[in-house]
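Sample intake sheet
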Amino acid sequence: MSHLDPYGSADPRGRERPDRPAPTSGLPWPEPDIEPAARARRPGLASDTYAEPRTRPWPGPDGGTRHHGDTPAAPGDRGGHEHPAEPHRHGDVVPPPYTGLPDGRGPDGHQPTAQFEAVREIEPDAGPESDPERSAGRGQRGRRRAGASRSADGQRAPSRAGRNLPAAIGVGLCLGALIVVPLGLYPPAFLLVLAGAVGVGIWEMVRAVRRADAHPPLVPLVAGGILTVGLAWFAGLDALTLGLVVTLLGTLVWRLGDGSRGLARDLTAATVITVYVPFLAGFAALLAAAPDDGPLRVLVTVVAVVLSDTGGYAAGANFGKRPMAPTISPKKSWEGFAGSVTAAAVGSALLLWLLFDVAPWWGALFGVAVSCAAVLGDLAESMMKRDLGIKDMSNLLPGHGGLMDRLDSILFAVPTAYLLLAVYVPVTG
């Protein structure tokens, strides 16, 4: 049988159904003006395209076996696939067959599949012994399977709370040491730690609110924040309020030098930052500056906050099912909140009884109040971050995000602890 012309022949091809009429045109649509132009651009298409013999047989319409060009496949020829080729529509341009050159090049000299690794066929029911690489890789030192605590690329997976737990624990211990060590060895050094934390917190807040197109001046805010904390340490509660007013006035004067455009927005952001960071942190200075037992007051407050965070994390990770504020912080649950309150109440009852000789039920009430304030502080910052479209205030602390991501609970807890301890254990002198 002679070679079939894919454009000019009206005989049915072997791959076509007998009941399907042959198209009148070589193209899938009747475009008589286009097809001659295509032939003119490629004059040798009809005579040379299918000159190479096909090596893949397919069943013909009469039940027999047909080969393109009537050339059967040579025994052992690996140029084609072992399965029948998919049918081609009339008019399709079939590429030349694979010549089977030793280096994998095609008829045009290219290696289209040289960048891909050869696929080896393995029996479905065969074990690892059928694959030399798999059997050689089993039991090798240094290879670990992906699991719940390790991803497929070998990196440790984050915890259920979304943190890198080992890094978070290490950074938390360092932050705790920065608080406890100065209070135990030389309490005035705690003022330097507090001033540094206020400066970093203001910087993170200013950097975050810029995403909302607010640009409060950084220099007067940092200077006024440190001044506010220092006044609270040396002069008490009235001086803390004075520091707040001085910081706001200094920020206003500084900002007026840049013009009136966006003034209201920038001053609003500056007011929020001033109240949120240095003013609330000033109550920690008031606790630490109390005569005789100032470091103990700071210690019981920090321990209550840590117990609240730890109890909430443990209860929420293991029993959390009902979200507490899904639109603000989806990972917080009512079960976690119950764990926070319980852990803080039990720990504070014991600690205040041992250190200040306060009745356990009053100590438990102290722990509940501090825990509620800490949770509210955490939710308040989560709402700010969600409104600003950020996940963390910064990436300063591995496993924690920014410093403000750790101070959010403490900043709301220290005013509550200051008021309750002023009632439980009045300051003398």
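Comment: Residues 1-103 form one domain. The two ends are 118 Å apart (CA to CA).
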